Amino acid sequence: MADGAGCGWSINSGNERRRKRAHASGDDEGQAAPAHWPCIHDGRLFLLESWRRGEPKMRPDSGRIVIARTAGMDALEKQLYGLAVYVTIEGGVRVAAEALLGALQRQCGIQPTAMKVEAACPPYHFFIRFDSVNDCAQVLYLKPLLRCGGAGMSIRRWCWDACGTPGKMEYKSLVSIEGLPEQAWEVETVNNVLAGVGGRLEEMLPPTDRWVLPVTAWLQDPCAIPKSLTVVLPTPTPPPMRPSSDEGAESPSPPRSPTMKRTQEFNLFMHVKEVIDRGRLLIEGPSDGFYSDEEDLTRRHTFPTWRGKIDGTGPGDHGYA
Q1: Cβ 66 vs Cβ 200: under 8 Å
Q2: 177-191 burial by CB neighbour count: b if 16+ within 10 A, else e?
Q3: pLDDT of 156-167, one tens digit each?
Q4: pTM of the complete model beyond 0.85
Q5: Residue 245 has what pLDDT?
Q6: Cross-strand bridge partners of residue 86
């Protein structure tokens, strides 16, 4: 039999062992519940309930979001750069992580303890992280010769954009945010707000007061920015209770799983003040023949925005936003 053939990708052999352990313990899912997870029997049903929150029929088929780049993301990219590869087993041969570890040990001389093999999201089969830059470089150098389970391997160096497709934010805009709570006037939170509407923070501009926060941002589509936006902020987690003195102090009881996570909602006005537009002209009816693809269409759109007023409903009594 081929080395590891029939064992599935790396998660299958491990999951099979977990399922066996779970079957012995009565856990049908084969995965331990998180700490403080509510213990509710699956058979607890209410006959009047027609639908269940979260079931597939009640969820949209697809969605699209922008996520903000964070310092933690940049740090992880630096940790992975030069130390990780994607592996695809050619010919549809199914191998296990243990088989791939053994193949790299035999053919490259790398000890299994010096690398970690995990299942990867398609189109790749495995994600390997090495302890040494030299080990990673050696695998890439020998990749035309490497085989596992009787099949060749396609190996690609990890890169931050390896699993994505190119896109762009082409509209640089001047936006002012009205109603953002004071504790949220910092770069990471403002970037998260803009990411939620398809944008990326470029710069926080000096505000004149605490009413309106002006920023410059890159936007995917200025027309998709809502004029009014509700931001939901989870409430801070309270500190654990402590006795007022050591006298008569008792050990605290184990924390119970909360039944909800409280939030606070803030209503914002998103004022789009200026847009640098290099896109196609927005014309009613056919636009063919009005301009060529090589023509420079750069223009600046400016809009009056007012404090306390939704864009397009001014003027207001409190000045420009």
Answers
A1: yes
A2: bbbbeeebeeeebbb
A3: 999 988 888 889
A4: no
A5: 58
A6: 127, 156
